[in-house]
Each structure stands twice: as structure tokens, then as C-alpha cells.
Design brief:
single chain, 3 domains, 8-stranded mixed beta sheet, 4-stranded antiparallel beta sheet, 23 helices, Spermidine synthase, membrane, transmembrane
Amino acid sequence: MNTPLQSTKKPLISPVILFAGTLFISAMLMFVLQPMFGKLLLPLLGGTPAVWNTCMVFYQTLLFGGYLYAHWLTTRSGNHRQIQIHTALMIFSLFALPVALPLDANPPSEGNPTFWLIWTLFLAIGLPFFVVSATAPLLQKWFSQLGHRSSGDPYYLYAASNAGSLLALLSYPFLLEPNIGLVNQRLFWSVGYGLLCVLIIVCAIAFWRSQPEFDADDSRDNQADEIEAPSLKQQLHWMALAFVPSSLLLGLTQYISTDIAAVPLLWILPLTIYLLSFILVFSKWADRIHPLMVSLQPAVLLVFIAYSFINPAVLPYWLDLILHCLAFFLAIMVCHGELAKHRPHPRYLTRFYLVMSFAGMLGGLFNTFVAPFVFNAVYEYPIMIVAALLLRPGFFNGRWFLQPLFPGLVLLLGLGIYLSSDNLWDYLDIIGGALILLAGLTYSVRNSPLGLGLLTAVILIFSLGLHSLASSTLYQERSFFGVLSVRETVIADENQRPEKVHELYHGTTKHGAERLTAANITTPLTYYSRPGPIGQLFAEFDAENQNWRIGSVGLGAGALACYNKPGQDWRFYEIDPLVVKVAQDPTWFHYLERCNKQAAMIIGDARLSLIKEPDQSFDLLIMDAFSSDAVPTHLLTREAMQLYFSKLKDDGLLAFHITNRHLALKKVLADHVNSLQLSGLLQEFNPEAAAPLVVATDWVVMAKDPQRLERLRQSRLGHWQKLPLTFDLKPWTDDFTNIIGIWK
């Protein structure tokens, strides 16, 4: 261990507090910048998942670049030269403040904007983010050579860094976003970055003073040369232990957001657990925590597999969510615990973090760019559950080559039953019971990671197949925007006879349905039924809508197309090409084919597409855009409303579909109606008589002139009422939105 010359003066502030505080602030800045700048880009590129995913890949790549720079700097330069180079880089990065989009930031009107987005991010925040990314490994390396009594194991400072990340993660949606607009967020972040640079320089001065006057590569402690460098096998082990939790994080986030509950901000929960695991495994309690996590994981796995995968229907969604998060916590605690346990000597600290960041980047790339094109559902999530079990300690203990025998026999037996049975539907309960029994057997092989992982893999394979069979899934495909499926169900018609129905799902949220009998095949159903609000609107204006030009944002199964009349001009704006493909395929749905085959299909984000339309060209705009259960926020801002009404004629109507389980979107629209001096009516529709697939739904209709809506308000077709007054809601703009403020 290097023992540099020490100053006789006692420092004004403890080096631990100084370095930990600097790492804490750098991590906070990083986790505030990511959502802030992603949100800043939404009005330019729309609310597509591609925007967020591309931003995340950029952040992970630049984080890896920062770790690579820290590794290069500390291994290729003397201590004093490190300080000089990094100080120059920080001074140069200050010219990028305040962080903002370039003045000429206009995305390409045609083609894929991915490279434009990455270049724009690099110009706007590249240097500051790079400096922040390099802070954690660089300062920990400096601290390891400071000569402090705890310098021999500086890894505990990583807990301070992750604590800052965790605080920023929780404070952004609940504290910063509801109270500070994007303009002020950028200014405050820039001030915080300037403070960080000052703190890094103070750390550098403390490091400089602790070093010998002569600073050359050959002045390092001779004992360092005797420390064996990490082997390739050890570095690959680090990579696996970091890759699996990173992929598991993204897989769980997508799974619970689409297959369990489409709750806004639910993505915060897995990421909070992920950051918490790093805090724990690098803390002083890690040696006592890690054995406990290893022993608890198989016990929780048994319950988790039995209820969350084999038989999830018996659990309320919140309990299922808890089970998934608990299993995730134990899995990453074991992986990250092994990672922390096998950390190298501080001389190789930057290499350790470099491998970790590279593996984390690979995990993000795999889930973002590989899995959506390889799998037709979120299968990367159960795959990584198995991978985490294989990474448990003791893989090669005992006769490991015999461990695959039992899972292999179970797999062959199951495939034999599947291939030899004509109708497995009659045996669903028996198959489910057998799988639960197998889940119980997983605990008996808890001490053999290979056996435990392979047996769990076999159970998951059969469980996923069982659920596909039970849900009568006819078609399933995955795009960049999520998992789309067509399911077949049977209902009782008006005469109590069984009738087949096709239903369209995005994740677990139904986006349309169609009855298949000749008499009902073109009848709009679910949120678009004729007794419902949108049906009432078309019925009330039936006499004058012969030649209307109608735009509909969101296609679904295409039910709205059956309100078409021969003289009307319809245009559907849909962001997901897969939705258009399914809606136009008569194998699944017939609305478009039979009612409006000539309707134009415009692929892309609604705001970007509508900008290209002539002003005052539409008689009716229907906003029916949903991502699972939520309306994208950038379609609900004041600027979005101004865009819609600029495209409507003076007597045009805007119909907004706001049905969802979690957000009171009527408050946002009511505020826009008041501030933009519009007129609006709301109907929260509940069908009075039981009718097949006529469901409760909420719609708002708006117009420039109150008289335009008077006939609808007085209509006997439904109960239309004025939008409620809002006094405590800050207006939603492209600069400010607040999900928490409209939570139901």
C-alpha cells in the first residue's frame, strides 16, 4: 500500500466527508440530468419510447466513456498530471453551461432521427455528463492514495454515490418536476455543476498535498508491483455479475409496467431497489448481509414462481408486484454482493468500475435493441431470472455435471405430454398443480446453482406456455413500442348464445374488440360504442357531417372507422406500424376493411404529423392516443392544444378520450379550456343496460364557440356536463407537467 508524505496540518474538513459529499452531489446531478433532458426533447421528437431508449443508450455509453477515461488517466499519468488534465477538462466543460438544446435543434423531417438525437445530446450535455460520469471512479482512486486510515478500501464511497443517485431519482418526480419548470431546472443544474467542479478541485488539492514532491510513474510503492492483476476469468465474472442485474432491471420495469399494472412512475420502484442494492453491498454491513441474501433467495423463489408465474390470477396486482420486486431485490443483492466480495485491490479500482459500466451498457443495449427484435414478449425477464440463479456462489461445488439430469428429464417428460395430447385445455388445473409441485422441489436443490437455475428455467418455459394456452392468444408480436396481442374470447349474445370475439391488447390493457357474427362485425365496441360518448357525438351531428374531414390520433383495432360516411375524409395517426398491420389484417379485425378501406394511415408521433397538416383543415379531431393505460403527457400540454385548434376549422370539434385508471386528466383539460378561452363538455359514461362489450368510458369534447356544443349539452342521448373548475392546478406546458398533481 502506498504511504505518501503527509502534511502536518490537520485538514479543515475530513477527507471522507469531502470525497463522499462530492460523489453524492455528482450522482445527484447525473440522475437529475437524465430525466430532465429526456423530457426537454419530447416536444421535438414526440413521446415515443424510442426517444427515452435512445437517451438511455447515450447515457450508458457516455458513462462507460467516463469510466474508460478515469481508467486511462489513472493508469497512464502520474498523480499530479492527472489533476492537471482533469482540471483542464472541467474548465473546458464549463463553456457548455447553461445546459440547453442547440439553437438550430430541428430533427430531420424524414428518416430515422436516432443519429440526430445522439449528436444533439452530445452537443448539449456531452462534456458535462462525461465529467460527471468520470467523477466516481476517479475520486475513489484518488482517495485510495490519500493516506487516510480508510484509504485501503475506498469502495464504501460507492455507497455515497448511489445514495445521491437514489435521492435524485426520488426527488425528481415528487419534488423537482411538480415545482420547477424545465427552464429553471436547467439553470439550477448548471449552478450545481459549477459547485461540483469546485468540490472536485478541492478534492484534487487535498490529493495533491498528500503526494510526494517527485511524482513519476516509477515513484509508486514497490508493493503495488507485487499485487497480482485480475485475471481474464475474474473480469468476465465481474461482467456477468453486472450484466444480469442491468438487464433484469429493464426487463422487470417493462414487465410490471405492461403485464401487471400500467401505473405512472412505476419504473421508479425497480430502479430504487437497484440503487439500494449497491448501497448495501458496499456498506460496512455487507459481510453479514450477503449470506442472508443467498439463503433467502431460494425460499422466496419458491413462492415467487408458484404465484407470480404459475398462478398469478389468485393474487391482487399489488401483492404480485411486491413478490416480483422482492425476488428482484434478492437476485441483484446476490449478484452485486458477489461483485463486491470479489472486488480487486484499489490499484485496479478503475478497471473494476470500467468492467462494471461496460457490462451495464451491454445490458441496456440487449434489452433495448436486441430483445424487442428477437422475442415476441418480454422473455428477457424470465431469462435473466434464471441467469441470476446460475450466478449464485458455488456453481462448481459437488458433482455439478450431474445437476442438469433432473431438469432435463422433466423437460423431456413435459414435451412428451405436449406432443402426445390432443387437448391440453382439459388438463390445465392438473398441469398447474404439477408445476407448483416442481416449484416446491426447487428449494431442495438450493445449494446447486446449476440445478436450481435449470429447474427454474423448465418451470418458467411450461408456465409461459400454459398462460398462452389459457388466454387463447391467437397472435402476439413485439415492436419497439411494446407487446401487441390478439386474443379470442367467448361471450353470450343478446339471445344468450355463445359468440366469439377478438380483442386487441397492448400489454394487459385492452385497446379494442370486435364481435365476429355477420350482424355485429362492423359494430363499434368498448370505448367507441354507439351508446357511448363518441357514438353520441356522431349521432348528434349526423345531419351535417356528410363531408367532414376527420383526423383520429390512435388506431387501435379500427372501431372508429365504422362511423365513416361515403363523403367523409378520414386520416388515422398511429405511432406503431404493428398496430396498423394488425388492424388492417382481416384475419383479426374487419373494421377497416369493411367500413373505411380508403382511410389514410400516417405513421409517426401525432404532434409531429399534425404540424405538417394545413391549418383550419379538420372538422373533427379525435385524440385517442394511449401507451398501455396512459395518454402521453406531451399530447396534453397547452402547446399541444394550441396545435390541435390551429388545425381545426372555426366550428371544428376536438374529442378527447381520457379513460384511465390512475390519472384525473379532466383537470388538465379543464385548465386548458379556461386559460385558452375554449368551451368544453365532459361525459363519464356508465352503460345503464347490460350490453355486450359496451364499457364505461370518459370523453371530453371541446370547441372554440360555446354555442357549438350547446346541442350536445342539451342532447338526451347522454349526460354531458361542463368541465369542473380547477384552482390548484399549475397549467401543463412543454416546460412543466406534474403527474402527481392529478393522481386519482
